[in-house]
Specification:
Elements lengths: L2 E3 L4 H8 L6 E3 L5 H7 L6 E4 L9 E4 L2 E5 L4 H6 L1 H6 L1 H8 L4 H6 L2 H6 L8 H6 L3 E5 L4 E5 L4 E3 L2 E2 L6 E8 L5 E8 L10 E10 L2 E10 L6 E2 L1 H7 L6 H11 L13 H19 L1
Parallel strand pairs: 1-3, 2-3
Antiparallel strand pairs: 4-5, 5-10, 6-7, 6-10, 8-9, 11-12, 12-13, 13-14
Helix pairs in contact: 9-10, 10-11
């Protein structure tokens, strides 16, 4: 029999998770049927989080932007703060699933599912985001880049809850780009995605972060390609060189969505498009 608890506060939710055999946190539930099919015993008891107001909302305070883990993709897509300071996140959210999925699915679920094809993960890593994790005993922060161990695997402990993610307010001069390739234009899981955030001065790269998804066990930073671009003017030649280099930084697999060779080729193409967008 399925058991569902419906806490109305964060403290109540954390106390439920502190049980010896803690239930599974459930936010939007957009992946629930798929997960229960594979692991029915694991997904038999839930803590439904949709009434926990402390997990919702997008706020700018001082030099940080904080997004509650229960904030939906649709809220991120339409948020004025993000549209002004981090449009790369609005763009990524707009590519997720269908309208129904965006209205139900949450940023916390997208992160905790730990899929290398999670659409919000790459732009958040490009923004150098940090996760906030909390249990009844402690609260800690972990860089999103270090949050993942592999597909479906994270540093999150059974009694912990991802309560928010935050990042520094981007400089007004920063530019970002998110590009994704799927089997069709909408309602598609990514074959490859590239997110880029950087600061350019007269088309010269002062610094840049490049995050790539669906081409390794986790979303990765392309550090060698970043180093290649550092201090360089974004000419056609250097953009092409970056597209070639990034192909050597990834380790794609062949699966039902695509072949490894195709993913490797397309990653270079998408990076070139993202860099051209920055210009």
């Amino acid at each position: 029999m399925t058991q569902i608890a419906v806490p109305k506060s964060l403290q109540e939710a954390l106390e439920l998770l502190a049980a010896k055999n803690p239930p599974q946190p459930l936010a939007g539930g957009t992946d629930l049927l798929v997960l229960r099919k594979d692991e029915p015993d694991r997904f038999a008891s839930f803590v439904l989080l949709e009434n926990v107001r402390e997990l919702r909302g997008i706020h700018k305070q001082d030099n940080r932007i904080r997004i509650g883990s229960g904030t939906t993709h649709a809220e991120i897509e339409r948020n004025a703060i993000l549209a002004n300071y981090a449009p790369i996140l609005c763009s990524a959210a707009s590519h997720i699933g269908s309208v129904q999925i965006r209205n139900r699915g949450t940023i916390g679920g997208n992160i905790v599912n730990a899929s290398p094809a999670g659409d919000l993960i790459a732009p958040l890593i490009a923004l150098d985001a940090v996760t906030e994790l909390q249990s009844v005993r402690q609260k800690r922060e972990v860089s999103l880049r270090e949050f993942f161990h592999g597909p479906g695997e994270t540093v999150l402990q059974p009694q912990e809850l991802l309560i928010a993610v935050h990042f520094s307010v981007p400089d007004a001069r920063e530019r970002g780009a998110f590009v994704k390739l799927g089997p069709r234009r909408a309602v598609a899981c990514s074959k490859v995605m590239v997110a880029v955030q950087g600061l350019l001065h007269h088309d010269t790269v002062e610094w840049i972060r490049i995050a790539v998804g669906a081409v390794a066990p986790t979303v990765i930073r392309a550090s060698s390609t970043e180093a290649l671009l550092q201090g360089k003017k974004l000419s056609g030649k250097i953009v092409k060189e970056a597209g070639e280099m990034i192909r050597h930084e990834i380790s794609p697999i062949t699966d039902i969505r695509s072949t490894a060779d195709y993913r490797r080729h397309v990653t270079g193409v998408l990076l070139q498009r993202a860099l051209e967008t920055l210009l």
